[in-house]
Design a protein that fits this description.
This protein is mainly alpha-helical. The protein is built from 21 helices and two strands.
Length: 486
């Protein structure tokens, strides 16, 4: 007998194992593959994958650019770290999108170097040279293995992520990323003489207008790669303006391989391991929220098994990354915005991006071509990308029945706490440095507050009794439902 429909009125009733209708995307017809599992023509696959690489490139190379000089590496050694980070990000992305056994979310999910670990890594390795890098790598290996073991248990938190929580977290992801775009728009380096100059900000604005115009005027495939076209156009305009740096191409090697343990065998120090384990838990929390966000956007809600596979790919990628001189890997939320904007949901497109990252890591001169895109140009496009993530969160909150119970209060408190690191960056300056790993992440703090308040108001005591006595609400219907195993 057919199961009772659990969907919105405009959805077609399907068996309980299928995902519910989502207002963000159109459901895939039942007579063909889900768009997540579709392969595209080679040219479209490559250009769409390249667009993902362009969106994430600065985020991948920024941590090694910060950590390398801080620990005392030479510019050439820092460049080696950057290439290794691109290579390991590609490996982790392939593991995440294609999957092996029960490892990998098998969603269009991009992995790269986590920014959450930059501060503790600098503290661990400051002025220690190769020994500092070896200690950092040893701590990441242990943290990655611990996270891999915890993944089957951590993924069970998905039941505590109804739309009132996921919508809040997705919104915070987008809002937390916007300052990154603003920083890029100003030039990216606050110590530079031209930081925040009218030239930089004008270039960001020009790129933003180009991207919006292309999205409005183009159709079909060209509309889907509007971000990439906008970056190319913005870079070409930036050449006569004088903010495009060709030095990276001149200094880049033609070929290079991230030699295993280039800086020496990993070293294991207890304090460093504890710090990186905390970072790993933060990354797992953010990755869980990112998978829930991406699952809704692509029309394949992330269930416990999907999140478990995604966390295993994150943590295994992190544990293997130091072998090739890379850092901790986690989800890149900016690429979620790209998926939402382009509506290209194929995980094989992102896998193509992972392949491009590997090539960039092995061919430094090719990586330097991507590096030609000036940060102000990237910042202009980033405003659209990151704003798209926040808009997806707001759409999710629209299904969260904020008029019911204390849901509006949950959102208000979680968003308020999550905005503290953005609105007042020095708010927690008196707290212990180890706590700052969590407190300085608005996504993590907002996520924790939303989960705790949802438990308190909707699952415990009077709130739970009221929830059981009331008919099914929009919140219940919109919660991620189990999907068929991949």
């Amino acid at each position: 007998m057919a199961a009772t429909p659990r969907f919105h009125n405009d959805a077609v009733a399907e068996p309980d194992s299928d995902p519910p209708h989502d207002p963000l995307v159109e459901p895939a017809p039942v007579d063909r593959k889900h768009p997540v599992d579709e392969t595209l023509p080679p040219l479209k696959m490559f250009t769409s994958g390249l667009q993902h690489v362009a969106a994430m490139y600065a985020g991948v190379v920024a941590p090694p650019m910060i950590v390398g000089p801080a620990v005392g590496l030479t510019p050439k050694e820092t460049a080696f770290l950057m290439g290794a980070s691109l290579f390991t990000a590609g490996l982790a992305t392939l593991l995440q999108t294609l999957g092996i056994w029960r490892i990998g979310a098998r969603l269009p999910f991009v992995n790269g170097v986590s920014f959450a670990g930059v501060t503790p890594m600098v503290a661990i390795g400051k002025d220690r040279g190769h020994d500092g890098i070896a200690v950092i790598f040893g701590a990441i290996i242990v943290a990655g293995l611990l996270g891999f073991l915890l993944a089957p248990y951590f993924c069970k938190l998905v039941r505590f992520f109804p739309p009132v929580v996921t919508g809040t977290v997705i919104t915070l992801i987008g809002v937390s990323l916007l300052p990154v775009a603003f920083n890029w728009s100003q030039g990216g380096n606050a110590r530079a003489d031209d930081y925040g100059s009218t030239t930089n900000i004008t270039m960001a604005a020009v790129t933003l207008v180009i991207v919006l115009a292309l999205r409005k005027l183009l159709r079909g495939f060209l509309q889907q790669i509007a971000i990439l076209l906008g970056l190319v156009a913005g870079t070409l305009i930036a050449i006569p303006v004088g903010i495009t740096d060709f030095g990276a191409i001149k200094d880049a090697d033609l070929l290079g391989f991230p030699t295993p343990f280039h800086f020496g065998a990993p070293q294991f120090e207890v304090a460093a391991i504890v710090s990186m384990c905390i970072v790993m838990l933060v990354c797992m929390t953010e990755s869980t929220a990112d998978m829930l966000a991406l699952g809704r956007i692509v029309g394949r809600p992330a269930d416990e098994r999907t999140i478990e596979g995604g966390l295993r790919a994150d943590t295994l990628g992190s544990a293997v990354s130091p072998l090739f001189n890379g850092f901790m890997c986690s989800a890149f939320a900016q690429n979620i915005g790209l998926v939402a904007m382009t509506k290209v949901r194929s995980r094989f497109v992102v896998a193509a991006g992972g392949g491009i990252l590997i090539v960039l890591g092995l061919v430094p001169v090719a990586a330097s071509v991507i590096a030609l895109v000036p940060l102000p140009v990237l910042g202009g496009a980033g405003i659209v990308l990151f704003g798209s993530v926040a808009a997806s969160g707001i759409q999710t909150l629209a299904t969260a029945a904020l008029e019911k119970g204390e849901n509006a209060l949950i959102v208000a408190a979680a968003v308020g706490v999550g905005l503290i690191p953005i609105a007042a960056p020095d708010f927690y300056h008196a707290f212990p440095k180890d706590l700052l790993v969590v407190l300085d992440s608005g996504i993590s703090t907002g996520c924790v507050v939303a989960i705790v308040l949802n438990l308190a108001f909707n699952h415990l005591g009077r709130g739970a009794d009221q929830e059981r006595s009331e008919p099914e609400t929009e919140t219940n219907r919109a919660a991620p439902a189990p999907v068929a195993a991949h």
